[in-house]
Amino acid sequence: MPDPYRLGLIRQIAQHAHSEIIGMQPEGNWISRAPSLKRKAILLAKVQDEAGHGLYLYAAAETLGVSRSDLVDQLLTGRQKYSSIFNYPTLTWADVGTIGWLVDGAAIVNQVPLCRCSYGPYARAMIRICKEESFHQRQGFEILHTLAHGTPAQRAMAQDAVNRWWYPSLAMFGPPDTASTHSEQSMTWKIKRFSNDELRQRFVDMCVQQATVLGLSLPDPDLRWNAERDHYDFTQPDFHELMRVISGDGPCNRQRLEHRRRAHEEGAWVREAAAAYAAKRAAREPA
Ligand code: FAQ
């Protein structure tokens, strides 16, 4: 395997794994505040799924000759990135629905092609992840549908959340193709199968129909069908804001990393106990 291919994959898979782990925080914030026991149980399961996705992805990265502890260290010291989207706050319960609908929706559009990428362990991890993401997307859609058909205050809360998450969700697909440093190489190697702009367009086309079913609007006055292109025209997200958030200056960057560092330190005894238990069992088992 050529080294640049291996390193390119480690970069992308590690960022992806970190995103799943940091991505537990915005929704985790609502587990104790979910409006019913049923909603709480569903959200708890979703957040646990995200931990599982992180685990599959770290395991896929390890097949390329890196250790999980080294990758975690790179996240905690800010040398590796995670998705910009998880640096935005979840202000209301409607944000949980909107993350499911838009953020998981964008994740699915981006990740379904990865199920057929050129590196088997990553592709195979993505198959299971996409199935679970699809459940996540539907639970978000259902939360928003309930709110959008509830009281005027609930409806306003749902619309406000969609207004705040729309552009950050569009930015998840990365910089425009003209500014994407890795796309060309990643597409040649068939790690990426579609460009950032192609997937962003696919996501917009999909969301317009779904917003109609929800009875909510998307906050873009220039969103309209273009029969010549056979796609919706739309306003691009603010890519300067994306770069600012990626470089550590988003609304919640510091809080997210601080929380992760603390959780990692506080969980050290669990890792030590698990390692000691595994060593004891290995010593007891006949060779
Ligand atoms: N945020 O040259 P490109 C989820 C970086 S879904 C942060 O275009 P590339 C599920 C990029 O890394 C979210 N950084 O890069 C969930 C590169 O930086 P570098 C995770 C970004 O790799 C839902 C630089 O900018 N999904 O977690 C972003 O060809 C709900 C130049 O960009 C994945 O990771 C961004 N938005 O394309 C969990 C999918 N965009 O490394 C919980 C796999 C760009 O040079 C709750 N990854 N950058 O320092 C990919 O498909 C690609 O890596 C892209 C970026 C499309 C994200």
TrEMBL record:
<dbReference type="GO" id="GO:0010124">
    <property type="term" value="P:phenylacetate catabolic process"/>
</dbReference>
<dbReference type="Pfam" id="PF05138">
    <property type="entry name" value="PaaA_PaaC"/>
</dbReference>
<dbReference type="GO" id="GO:0005829">
    <property type="term" value="C:cytosol"/>
</dbReference>
<protein>
    <submittedName>
        <fullName>Phenylacetate-CoA oxygenase subunit PaaA</fullName>
    </submittedName>
</protein>
<dbReference type="InterPro" id="IPR011881">
    <property type="entry name" value="PaaA"/>
</dbReference>
<dbReference type="InterPro" id="IPR009078">
    <property type="entry name" value="Ferritin-like_SF"/>
</dbReference>
<dbReference type="InterPro" id="IPR007814">
    <property type="entry name" value="PaaA_PaaC"/>
</dbReference>
<dbReference type="GO" id="GO:0097266">
    <property type="term" value="F:phenylacetyl-CoA 1,2-epoxidase activity"/>
</dbReference>
<dbReference type="InterPro" id="IPR052703">
    <property type="entry name" value="Aromatic_CoA_ox/epox"/>
</dbReference>
<dbReference type="InterPro" id="IPR012347">
    <property type="entry name" value="Ferritin-like"/>
</dbReference>
